[in-house]
Design brief:
Elements (H helix, E strand, L loop, with lengths): L2 E8 L5 H14 L5 E8 L5 E4 L20 E7 L2 E7 L7 E5 L2 E5 L9 H8 L9 H8 L1 H11 L6 E5 H6 L1 H11 L4 E5 L9 E3 L2 H11 L5 E6 L5 E9 L3 E3 L3 E4 L7 H5 L4 E3 L6 H17 L4 E10 L4 E8 L9 H8 L4 H19 L5
Parallel strand pairs: 1-2, 1-7
Antiparallel strand pairs: 2-3, 4-5, 5-6, 8-11, 9-10, 9-11, 12-13, 12-14, 12-16, 14-15, 16-17
Length: 366
């Protein structure tokens, strides 16, 4: 009997459309002979809706999104185990659509990559791909992630976290603190957001104010981080539970001032895999990727991003992504393909790891 896989995508975050692009690639690569796949899109307001794959891009050539017109579905825990139900809008009897053996939440950003969906799935006893609740929450929160990396001794750029309440009480003092601790250019970003959404590069105090204000449009905490001029941006893929596998790093080459949303998903980008790096830099990057993965207690998969400073030979950890992008321009696929692992084989591995985690967790009382 085929394993029944629930693919979740879309979601409430500003990365809704990126999630749709990632899910499209997952659905193209998954082995339909081995898995019975159900696709459920989460609308921007959080409703789960049954779909036949990822909708085509709209006529206006913008990125795809989950349409609002489909049937509503719900995940429930029955005496027979987790089941997916179709729920009529008029409140009449629900229709069972079948069991859910494992879920792949192809979701990015808040309400998908931050532990919220992972908690829902765990409470219903559904095995799922990727990090658990705690690791997901740490991984998406740049403040907590950087604090953990700092405690682990991983090298990073200097940074400060800014709380909205403190900013609103005395922004002048906050700006003084940032300028005393960091050198321009300074990058500002929301603490809990991905895909370079809400990130600005500031070269002056006026631009710094604008960047912090924009970051607060996405979160109550903003990160101010010292910038680098033209660092090389390299990334490693990581997969595993008890046994962790790390790919050699790949390099992202783009034409923008920094690797922003447009560079990631719209403009042409070159992915060089493996990256042309000295052997000792490659080894160090892979070691740091493993350490970052273990530091937050990750499982299943992640992509770890770095800055390589060519002039000094220094490798700096940027961030970890517990549900890495899987679009056509995403590095996660490419580093594993360069390591000899096809997309289909990689998805098999991730789904097997989800089942392995579920079997291990079942030995312990909640």
């Amino acid at each position: 009997m085929s394993t029944r896989v629930l693919i979740l995508f879309g979601g409430r975050s500003s990365e809704h459309q990126v999630s749709c692009l990632s899910a499209r690639n997952v659905l193209e690569a998954i082995d339909r002979d081995r898995y019975d796949v159900t696709t459920v899109g989460i609308t921007r307001d959080g409703r789960w809706t049954l779909l036949d794959g990822v909708p085509a891009d709209p006529d206006d050539a913008s990125l795809p999104h989950v349409p609002d017109g489909g049937d509503t579905v719900a995940l429930v825990r029955t005496r027979k185990g987790p089941r997916l139900l179709r729920v009529p809008d008029d409140g009449s009897g629900a229709e069972e659509l079948g069991p859910v053996d494992v879920c792949f939440p192809v979701l990015h950003g808040p309400y998908g990559e931050d532990g919220t969906v992972q908690g829902l799935l765990a409470s219903y006893g559904v095995p799922y791909v990727g990090a658990d609740v705690a690791s997901s929450a740490i991984g998406i929160d740049k403040r907590q992630m950087k604090n953990v990396f700092k405690a682990r001794g991983l090298p990073q750029l200097p940074y400060l976290a800014v709380r909205r309440a403190v900013w609103e009480a005395d922004r002048g003092h906050v700006l003084d603190d940032i300028e005393a601790a960091l050198s321009y250019p300074v990058f500002t970003k929301p603490a809990r957001q991905g895909s370079s959404i809400g990130i600005r590069r500031a070269a002056t105090r006026e631009e710094l104010v604008m960047g912090i204000e924009e970051a607060f449009g996405y979160d109550r905490v903003a990160i101010a981080e010292e910038g680098l001029d033209h660092p090389r941006e390299i990334e490693c893929g990581v997969v595993g539970n008890a046994v962790v596998e790390v790919t050699p790093p790949g390099e992202t080459v783009h034409t923008g001032t920094f690797y922003d949303f447009e560079a990631k998903y719209i403009s042409p980008v070159e992915l060089r895999c493996p990256a042309d790096l000295p052997p000792d830099v490659t080894r160090q990057t892979m070691e740091f990727a493993r350490e970052a993965y273990l530091a937050i207690g990750c499982r299943g998969m992640a992509r770890v991003d770095f800055f390589f400073v060519q002039r000094t030979g220094e490798v700096l950890v940027n961030e970890i992504n517990t549900i890495p992008g899987m679009t056509s321009q995403s590095m996660f696929w490419v580093v594993w393909e360069a390591a000899g692992v096809s997309r289909t084989a990689l998805l098999d591995r991730l789904l097997d790891l989800a089942a392995e985690t579920s079997a291990s967790s079942a030995r312990f009382a909640p």
